[in-house]
Amino acid sequence: MTDTNTPTDVSVKPAPKLSTAEKRLKKRRAAEARFKAYGQLAIAVAIAALITLGWSIATKASSAFSRYEAVFDLTLDITPGTAGSPGEETVVASNLTAFYGLVQDDLRQAFPETETDRLQRLELTELITRLAVLPMAKALVETPELAGQQHRFTLPLSDDLDLFLKGGLTQRETITIAQPGRLSVSEDGTYTFTDGGPNGFPALNQKRVRPDGQERAFLVQLDQTWFEAKDITGAAMQLTYLTGPQPIIGEQSGRVASVLILNEPEGNRTISNRLIAWTLSLKEQGRIERNFNKGLFTRADSTHPELAGAAAAIIGSLFTMLITALFAIPVGVLAAIYLEEFAPKNRLTNLIEVNINNLAAVPSIVFGLLGAAVFLNTFGMPRSIPLVGGLVLGLLVLPTVIITSRAALQAVPPSIRTAALGLGASKTQSVFHHVLPLAAPGILTGSIIGMARALGETAPLLLIGMVAFVAEIPSSVDDEATVLPVLIYKWSTGAERAWEPMTSAVIIILLAFLIVMNLLAVLLRRRFERRW
């Protein structure tokens, strides 16, 4: 008899196997997910690189948009006279020596210790560049009433001192002496300064020598008087007077004392300790102020970074782009209309189309060689003028304008042409009255993008001489000029450190022009674009 309570064995069914189609589907989805991740990673890398580049340029350019200037209250006792032929008036603007003498006289009054030392008077001229007084001379020419009157002028400091005040040239640290001791002077003019505390100058002794064995420079300030520390031994410091009021000899308790530690020794810098002391003294007197560097946008190029500006390059770029647009856009648009709407389809037009596409990929320097051979050597046109530069860049962007214009014409539906012809319009009327207006947004967009490319070109303009030094702002297309990319190239090769932030500032200006042009292209496309 069978026991009905005995459990029955139930076998576990195995999981169903994926079919071949399901495996392929899963693999394809995984591949799509990886491809999406790769794309997102590529975009993230591109954005990070763009942000890094922009941040690097912006941080370097930030100091160039402001400048430290010295303030002078001067009485202009210089008046025009006559010289040369009868009736020929002396140009006051060219008499820079007299104006520079006024500035130097004022500085010698501020630092009387230079009166008896010829070398110090010569070193004092490094505070302000001689050409910096040119605005003073021009102001007197434009307003003769200033003669004999006291007027306030602000003149830019030399580029190295400007960089120093902005934190460049050398690392620095200021240490306050908590307990000033006694100040004495020997017969040879050497000062001895002692610390009022029991431990001497331990913090200073630890920082005296750099890891490479060179000694750091120590500038000691006692109230408004500046000294240079020559030696530190225990609680005694040997000082050399630099500038400021004659120090009070004896106990210094209650007076403010501090030490400015400069990491770079004096021999490794382009400015001396005395120049630094003079500059800091003027700043404490309120005679040095930091202002917006409007000269960057109003002045032409100069051999001195503190006097240089990009105005000539900005105007030169505008003139060059004007010639480029007047040449390339009409010719390119008309050529595109002919090739797309009127030219017969044969081997000749096919050859022309292939060559236009090939010309769009030709290196820009080839167009510079072409321009130098045709416009300069054959036609004998002057070098370094916007007229020639615009024609060369016009040849450069002409293929781009033709290609983008043809693409815009092809985007217009054929029904527009058929409808116009069906209503009795001629071929020319259908193209210029109906097709061209509808294609205009695309044509404008392509033309602006082509112009933006031309604005950033350097190589073709170097070959036609637009790298020349331009000291005057051009007033017409046949005046000597340069452009922003060439100015960037020129300033980037300058030896002075001040050219680095100036170059970055001009890059910011050029990028602003390019962003505006590309933004204009986007806005025009969105405003007038028609969707079929």
Summarize the structure.
The chain is built from 17 helices and eleven strands.
What does this structure look like?
The protein is α+β, with helices and mostly antiparallel strands and 532 residues long. It folds into three domains: 65-157, no CATH class; 170-269, Elongation Factor Tu (Ef-tu), domain 3 (Beta Barrel); 311-528, MetI-like fold. The chain is built from 17 helices and eleven strands. It has helices spanning 20-62, 96-110, 118-124, 134-142, 159-165, 202-207, 273-284, 295-298, 311-342, 347-359, 364-378, 386-410, 414-422, 427-455, 459-463, 484-492, 499-528, and strands spanning 66-75, 150-156, 172-176, 180-185, 191-195, 217-222, 225-233, 236-243, 250-251, 257-262, 288-292. Strands 3-10-6-7-8-5-4-9 form an eight-stranded antiparallel β-sheet. A hairpin with a 2-residue loop joins β7 (225-233) and β8 (236-243). α9 (311-342) packs antiparallel against α14 (427-455) and α13 packs antiparallel against α14 (427-455). The protein is elongated. Mean pLDDT is 83; it is low at 80-91.
